[in-house]
Amino acid sequence: MEDADLNALTAKIDQLIRLAERLRTENHQLRSSERQWREERARLIEQNELARHTVESMISRLKALEQDS
Predict the structure, then answer these.
(1) 15: part of which helix (H) or strand (E)?
(2) pLDDT tens sequence across 13-45
(3) Residue 1 has pLDDT above 80, yes or no
């Protein structure tokens, strides 16, 4: 193999290593972001369920008051 071919191959390998490192970093950031979104989603679902339960309870009390009148 000639020096030019060897240098080109070395450059290509270096480029691929940099790409792999960049993709690894990006993947880590995306996974972290996904984890945060999932945590927020779970929190919002819980808040929604609490609000729904509160509203249903209020409706039940209003119906009971209406029937007592």
Answers:
(1) helix 3-68
(2) 999 999 999 999 999 999 999 999 999 999 999
(3) no
